Every structure is written in C-alpha cells, then in structure tokens.
Amino acid sequence: MVESTVYQELSDLINPSQVFENAPLSKYTFTKTGGNADFLVFPTTYEEVKKTVQYAVKKNIPYTILGNGSNLIIKDGGIRGIVLILTKLSQIYHEGNDIIAQSGAAIIDVSRYALKQHLTGLEFACGIPGSVGGALFMNAGAYGGEVKDVLTSALVLTSTGELLRMEKSDFEFSYRSSAIAKHHYIVLEGTFSLQPGDVNKIKEKMDELTYLRESKQPLEYPSCGSVFKRPPGYFAGKLIQDSGLQGKQIGGVQVSTKHAGFMVNVDHGTATDYMNLIKYVQRTVKEKFDVDLETEVKIIGED
C-alpha cells in the first residue's frame, strides 16, 4: 500500500478535513488505549460511507467500522488499512411512534429523545454508552430490555458496499449477537417502534436506572464496559468477585473494586494490560468454578 496515494485518493473521495493518516485510536476509545490507524475517515453522509467502503474493496484494502468505541479494546499495534468512525452520522428524528436514528448517534441520546416525544420502550437504554450501530450489532441490553424488543428495521451497507433494508425477521437476534455481526453489515440507521407513554413515568424509570448504573458501575475511570458475557446459570461479576479478583491489577488496568464485571484503566494502562488481565481472570475463574468466561467486549487490531 503506497500510503500517500491512498491518503490522496481518500481525500479526493470525501473532504480532506475528514481524512487522517497514521492517527492514534486511543483518542476514540472509552479505555483510552489502542494503537494507530493507517487511515482514519469520518464520513458525514451515507454516500461517503458507501464510497469509502467501495474504494477499499476495489483496492483490496482492509477496512474497519467503529462507533463511539465504548465496548471495545483496540490492541496496541493499531489497525491496518482504513478505519471509518461513524460518530458524525448522529441525526435522530421521529415519524409517529417510530424513532429513526443514524448509526453514530449515542443510544443514550435516542432514549432521551424518546422521552421528549413521550414515547416508552427505550428506557432500558438510558445508561448504555454505545452508538446505535454498536447496539444493533451486538443486540445491546440492560435492566431487562434489549434492542431486539424495539427495533423494527435498519438500513445497512453490505461488506461490498451495497445498500440493504433489513426487516425485523432478518436480524436473527440472540444474546449479544445479531445477523448484522454475522454478515459484517455496516449499520447506517435503525428504526425503533415505541408506544405513547406518560412522560413522568418514563422519566421516573430512566432516573431509577441511571441511579442504579451510577451507584454500581465504576464510571469515574476509563473502561470498556461489561467485559464478559453472562455465563448460563451464573453472573460473570459474581464469579470474578468470588474468585477474590476484585482489585487485581496488571500494569495500569484493574478489576474494578466497585463492580467486578468491569476492568478500569487506573494508571495509564495499555490494551496489552487489558488483554493480560482478561486472560488472568478467565484462567482463575475456570480453575475455581470450571466456568468459561466469554468476552462481551470486542477486541480488534494488531498486537
């Protein structure tokens, strides 16, 4: 790959102010870790996403899609090829009881928008830090609700850059998984079907869930959110706690003393510190309880 040529060709496709070369990704992750991207692109329209993906496919350059980097660890070696960060695609609007949100919008903002429209159904999402695209990708959920409960359709781009409208029956949602992840689709927007509700009751529920989140989760430190999926019949945080691992630290990353299901960056930790601590916790829980902890956090990039 001739770097200057790729940079120039990307700059010709979309505004040069939206294209960066050898850019640090640690600025865009909740953990504040991760190496550099060869090329970093911030599309502002669906057409720019499509053009960039089609260019990458044509030139045989790998590409990676990021939202707001919440449930994510990017390795210290960074990411080769082109990284598209979709946070500038953040429009939210409604048609009747349906809310349409672009993929880069924060799902928290969508739940707040629903409150303003007196619509109920998205209260569970008021504390999920991910983007709409990320939430659809992994069927995000909290406090008894999941994306699959309210999502009715989505506009996606296929891995080769073709537009596709997905309906509810196409999603194949399961616990923290969807057909979007399986087929490597790129979410452009999602449509959420909600119900009219009492604004005071909606706000009361959101305030309650926000309090629960803030009182239980270590929001004062950078973290990647919930690290492990819930093993059948168990809670990951309880297994980690019962293994005596709260406060365990490798490098600058620590198993949170506030919530054992979280790992926090307490002292200039690296992605490698995260990886080593994850492996240590998995090994210890396996030894003590014979339970395999599977990561919920997405881990990408080069060592």
Describe this structure in words.
The protein is of the alpha+beta class. The chain has 3 domains: 3-85, Uridine Diphospho-n-acetylenolpyruvylglucosamine Reductase, domain 2; 92-201, Uridine Diphospho-n-acetylenolpyruvylglucosamine Reductase, domain 3 (2-Layer Sandwich), CATH 3.30.465.10; 218-300, UDP-N-acetylenolpyruvoylglucosamine reductase, C-terminal domain (Uridine Diphospho-n-acetylenolpyruvylglucosamine Reductase, domain 1, Alpha-Beta Complex). The protein has 8 helices and 19 strands. The strands form 6 sheets. Strands 6-7-13-11-12 form a 5-stranded antiparallel sheet. It has a 4-stranded mixed sheet with strand order 1-2-5-3, with helices on one face. Strand 16 and strand 17 (253-255) form a beta hairpin. The chain starts with a helix and ends with a strand.
Q: Tally of extended strands? A: 19
Helix content: 25-40%
β-sheet strand percentage: 25-35%
Q: Can you tell me the number of structural domains?
A: 3
Tell me the name of the CATH class of the largest domain. Alpha Beta
Mean pLDDT: 94
Order of helices and strands: HEEHEEEEEHEHEEEEHEEHEHEEEHE
Question: What is the level-2 CATH architecture name of the largest domain?
Answer: 2-Layer Sandwich
Total helical elements: 8
The description of the largest β-sheet is: 5 strands, antiparallel
How would you describe the shape?
globular
Keywords: Cell cycle, Cell division, Cell shape, Cell wall biogenesis/degradation, Cytoplasm, FAD, Flavoprotein, NADP, Oxidoreductase, Peptidoglycan synthesis
Pathway: Cell wall biogenesis; peptidoglycan biosynthesis
InterPro entries: FAD-bd_PCMH (IPR016166), FAD-bd_PCMH-like_sf (IPR036318), FAD-bd_PCMH_sub1 (IPR016167), FAD-bd_PCMH_sub2 (IPR016169), MurB (IPR003170), MurB_C (IPR011601), MurB_C_sf (IPR036635), Oxid_FAD_bind_N (IPR006094)
Protein name: UDP-N-acetylenolpyruvoylglucosamine reductase
